[in-house]
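We store sequence with structure; for instance:
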Amino acid sequence: MTMARRILLLDMASNAAQTIRYLAEECGWLVEEDRTRKGYLQKVAHGEYALVLLDVSDRSPERFAHCRAVKRALKERPLLLLTDTGEVEERLHGFQAGADDCLSKPYSPRELIYRMRVLLMRTNVSADRPHAPDADQPRHSALLGLKLRIERRGRTLWVDRHCVRLSRRECTLLCCLAERRNRTVSREELRRRVWNAETGPSDRIVDANIRRIREKLRRLSPDLGGLIRTARGQGYCLLDPAVVGG
């Protein structure tokens, strides 16, 4: 049985914390709050929290020192910071103080939950990643250029801090194209390697999976939709985004 993720809300106003608690519990997370700042660092260090959400919108002079202390106690676990304004300098100070992500007020609670989910997913993928690649997991399937990253074990596609999940077929198909990037891979080869079949599924099944991958690429960034090129009558070619990006 999988343990529910524990989330700690630090210094959040009670009405905001109540909204976040409701949405987080819908995701299956357990939420705790602390507004006292008494013994909070020990709580962070030993509480086995998967993520800490820290509100520094009070603009107190020591807010970023507080952020640094929390991040030191968290070590490798993610810290999401809520700031008072959308000013770039404010967010940069937050990142310099160790925050893994920053969100400014006023914010959408749904966006906040999405950012929390992404941070938790990144942490989960990182924990699952082997120190050395598996025999059936080529090195280049884990890192494609500088812009796009495929995590095969977690079946996750990353661009910067944003990600989408892939189905098993989509992930295997994308990794096959990544292994032969900048070269056309025939539909026959894709059927053989992804579906382990010489005949069937039909080309339409291959095309449908490619279409879904393109949609997920566009969801990450509109300019990534064209990375998979169709070689008419032949197959597909994945262009290396490091090359495309120049």
